[in-house]
Amino acid sequence: MKYAINWDLDSIFPGGSNSQELQNRMVELDNQIKEYHDKVIDWKPESDSVDKFVEILDLQEVISKGFSQCGSFIGALLSSDINDDKAKLVYGDFSKKYPAVQLAQTIFSKKLSEIDDEKWTELMLTPELKDLSFRLSEIRRDGNELLSEAEENIISTLNLDGLNAWSSHYDTIVASIEIPYIDEEGKEVSLSAGQAFNKMMGDADASVRADLFEKWEKAWSDKVDVFADTLNHLDGFRLSTQKLHGVDDYLKQPLEYNRLKEETVDAMWSTIQANKQPIVDYLTRKAQLFGKDKMEWQDQDAPIVLGDMEERTYTFDQAAEFIVENFEKFSPKMSKFAQEAFDKSWIEAEDRPGKRPGGYCTGLPETQESRIFMTYSNSVNEVATLAHELGHAFHSSVMWDMPSLNQDYAMNVAETASTFAELIVADATLKSAKTKEEKINLLDVKMQNAIAMFMNIHARYIFENAFYQARQKGLVSADEITSMMVEAQKEAYLDGLASYHPHFWAAKLHFFIDDVPFYNFPYTFGYLFSMGIYAYANKKGSNFEDEYIALLRDTASMTSEELAEKHLQVDLTKPDFWQAGIDMVLADINEFMELTEEYVK
Length: 601
Ligand SMILES: [Zn+2]
Known about the structure:
There is one protein chain. By secondary structure, the protein is mainly alpha-helical. The protein has helices spanning 20-42, 50-80, 85-95, 98-114, 117-124, 133-145, 149-160, 163-175, 193-202, 206-222, 224-244, 252-257, 262-273, 277-289, 316-330, 332-343, 380-397, 411-431, 436-471, 478-492, 504-507, 521-540, 544-553, 560-568, 575-596, and strands spanning 179-182, 188-191, 347-348, 360-364, 369-373. Helix content is 65%, strand content 3%. A three-stranded mixed beta sheet has the order 3-5-4, with helices on both faces. It has a two-stranded antiparallel sheet with strand order 1-2. A hairpin with a 5-residue loop joins strand 1 (179-182) and strand 2. The longest helix is centred in the C-terminal third of the chain and has 36 residues, at 436-471. The protein is globular, with a radius of gyration of 24 Å. The structure holds zinc ion (ZN). This is Oligoendopeptidase.
């Protein structure tokens, strides 16, 4: 094998969870936090010179980078070995630093909010601060909502054993999930949640998928009360915190975090909703190809294997070459970057037990590197995931030279570069199809993404709205949560499926993430946003690379609406932009319907 399937973490901090270098950096971080705190306390923004402001920002920069560096490393240890108890302890020590930083940040934001408008305008025009004005103004806005320093300190201290604890409690329960499975040799094995999920959604044999789906549902429903408790308290904690800050609208935080207007999100969903019938028809057609009348939940992502078609697979090395080669056609810089990531072993791809499920990309600002986590087992889908995560890493890489404050892009645009990278690979795979059967198979693989964005993620958005509304009134029982989930799925899929996934809310990590609520609509936003960019790129040809990088570099310096206006000349609050992206998906669906017609007669 040419490229390593395990990531290199030693070059960040040698020694894994026992790393002395990590301990040293964490001690240094404590001192820097203290220094930052003292400087912020002494600061008199109205009378001190701008230099003092800049000094504080410089220190903030060092701390922010240190936090990400250590946090990414510890996170990497935890996800690559869920039984690394030492890493859990280190994570505990690391988390304890948050309150001190948050306290200093609170004081900083409050001081910004106390600066009068005239002085603020003057400050934001100084050469030292001009480029940071968007982000600093956001911090000043948030400062207005803060309670007293003492109160904020109490809340962030309680967060550790509240909000954050519920989220890591979820991980602990998931680690205990075991799905029994009879393997190919007839031996009974137990699969981790991640392994079972991949097999359940990806196996070519419908009976394997159906059998696993039943066991999968059972595994989550066996612990349903623990999951319901966890979800109730996690979101309950969040709602209480919002209420303490005088915020009644649970969508305010996710919208502000994503720098989006509610109007934009509404325009996006309503345009999608109006275009769903062809998607349901597509799902029904796919079910018919499996010999069923209507789509079953677990068959949505199943491969379509017609005739004597062999399903295409890529070894890790082949995937690497394919990605590098196809990125090159859109952006040589992106291609060179991906090559580097493979050469330097930035990717943890091995398929083995004891790993957390899912995939992610994490940044290491002190060394200006990224690391990618996933489980790779040679499918076309996983090539797409690999490209997706490399897209994230590329996005970070074009911003490393900028101030941390301007690198702080939100989740909705964070998915822009990743989805874009994924689209490049999906289309390249499609073009390389040698037979009609293979083309159908690959079109379907490409469609899975769009369908997840329009249907599944819409269901999550509907569900979370319903859950938050109910949770505002009191605790919600496991049964109620489960029926809310089914209702949401039926609404999102226009009631077009033969079966649903009632315990999806327990099985999906995204509902249990502590740092941001509503870990769903930004995905769909990012998907359609990059469809728009992809269409633009195809039109532009060779001039595109620099424009694309310029757009990525602006992702944390303006609102999403401004970003679209500036770089794509479109208005996100109107349906047109969304419809254009959806039309690209509908064109693929049309092609699929035509190609498959003869198989269902
Ligand atoms: Zn992503």
